[in-house]
Amino acid sequence: MKSMSHVHNTPFTVAVAQVAPVYLDCAATVEKACECIVDAGQAGARLIIFPESFICGYPVWVWNIPPGEQSLLSELYVTFRANAVRIPGEVTDRLCRMAQRARINVVMGLTECATEVGGVCCYNAQLYINAQGQIVGKHRSLVLNGAERLVWTAGNGSTLQVYKMPMGIIGGLIGGENYLPLARHSLYAWGTQFYVATSWEHGEIWHATLRHIAREGQVFILGCNAVLPAVTLSGSAPLTQFSLCDKGGWLHPGGSVIINPEGEIIAGPLLEQEAILYAEIDVRKMHRSKWMLDVTGQDARPDIFQLTVHCDTHPLIQIKDRQSAAEEKLKKQSEYMSDI
């Protein structure tokens, strides 16, 4: 993929939606997302970001329920998968219509129910929708941390991409992917100007990571953290059997931030509340320090370092008919005879 350098000189507003899902309820969570999209559009934002697996909630139980509780884990997974999103499908159609109506670009965190290979795999995904209501792409997380492997499948390089939108080039990583230097470098090299970092992580170490990424890549960071009040899970009988709902207050406090290319936090952190975080972005600031450090330009040193990104897919099943198999056998025989 070639770099898609693009400069938009007019400052504009971005929005980070730190809001809780209606847990394990796809329809209700989509309704909440649509309300946020409308609100951000009315506030003048041109881009809105939603948390990791916002539709229909991060699978928090994988860290709390023992693996031996197979019956309960199976029940939760069935519900989780039933509320996952097909791309495209009715849910994405609704989101696209709302993005078009609000004239805003949307990056939605969701659990995707794959349409290939029987539709049995779930992926932790980011969906990109432009202000014209069109799906421009999706990214499936390449890295799953620990117990996340119980519910999600890791993606492949085919969805590691960046996207050209009216305000500039946007790309993003999910959770643990943000700790992969080569994944980050790929986004930088493809011209990313707005780096979407959605994650379940929070706190000072996470903010330090995001500030480093902003300075390293000379990018704006849109850091959207999940937020989850304990009351969200109080109505779920399976989850109340364990310690998930005993903490009171906030199971996850959020901490969303917006950071400029110099590594400075310009909005947030937003803690222990559901709200939409706004900031004005001036893309010209990306280029002020490029003469000092440009990790994919003058300082990349391709004479020493080289990165290869495999963006092809690897289908589980490949059908080869008898005729092609016979042709391949004949070709091998001909090659053997010519060698003799």
What characteristics describe this protein?
single chain, Nitrilase/N-carbamoyl-D-aminoacid amidohydrolase, globular, disordered N terminus, C-N_Hydrolase, C-N_Hydrolase_sf, Nitrilase
**CATH class assignment:** Alpha Beta
Q: Report the order of strands and helices.
A: EHEHHEEEEEHEHEEHEEEH
Overall SS class: alpha/beta
Number of domains: 1
Helix content: 25-40%
Stated plainly, the CATH topology is called Nitrilase/N-carbamoyl-D-aminoacid amidohydrolase
How large, in whole angstroms, is the Cα Rg? 22 Å
Beta-strand percent range? 15-25%
SS summary, helix count = 7
Q: Cα distance, first to last residue?
A: 42 Å
Give the averaged pLDDT, no decimals: 87
Q: What would you say the CATH architecture is?
A: 4-Layer Sandwich
Structure commentary:
The structure is a single chain. The chain is α/β, with parallel strands linked by helices and 340 residues long. Helix content is 26%, strand content 25%. It has one domain (12-335): Carbon-nitrogen hydrolase (Nitrilase/N-carbamoyl-D-aminoacid amidohydrolase). The chain has seven helices and 13 strands. Strand 7 (168-174), helix 4 (181-189) and strand 8 form a beta-alpha-beta unit. Helix 1 runs parallel beside helix 3 (90-102). It starts with 11 loop residues before the first strand and ends with a helix. Mean pLDDT is 87; it is low at 1-7.
Q: What's the structural blueprint in terms of helices and strands?
A:
Layout lengths: L11 E7 L7 H17 L2 E5 L20 H13 L7 H13 L2 E9 L8 E8 L5 E6 L22 E3 L2 E7 L6 H9 L4 E6 L4 H14 L2 E6 L1 E3 L7 H4 L9 E10 L5 E7 L3 E7 L40 H18 L1
Parallel strand pairs: 1-2, 2-3, 7-8, 8-9
Antiparallel strand pairs: 1-13, 3-4, 4-5, 6-7, 9-11, 10-11, 11-12
